[in-house]
Amino acid sequence: YAMLLSLIFLIVLVAAVVGFVFRHEIKTNFESNLNLALKDYNVTADRHSEAVDTIQRTLHCCGVQNYSDWERTEYFSQRGIPRSCCKSQDDCSEKDLKDPNKAKLKVFVDGCFFLVTSTMESKMSVVAGISFGIACFQLIGIILACCLSRYITNNQYEMV
Question: Of 159, 107, 117, 145, which Cα lies nearest the Cα of 2?
Fold first, then answer.
């Protein structure tokens, strides 16, 4: 049991170190994937388009850096900026979404990349605290399992 807990502890420790060391690569990869999702965005309900819509609706953002990122997409030339960028769904017409000047007043102007990364970074302290707490319980479990193993081994020859 102590060996299994030690193995799990080491795996979690390695994952945490790798995540910390490669955090900048993770951000860069996320930004490029978000740009790719915008480029391939379409009206059919594929999971990448749904993810973009969910991020934009939830975080009240539009595009990667700002709403004008949509102007470089194929979707914009056909239908304008997606409705998931609208501040108010009732006050957002397709005609307004095709005109970048009118759309600026109707959609969220902030980009999603900064909001997603800042949200993740603000939650990292909570994740780190919980992970540290779990690691402490794992270490206590390893120590207690070793003590129990030693106690059983030492008392094996004293049984009557």
Answer: 145
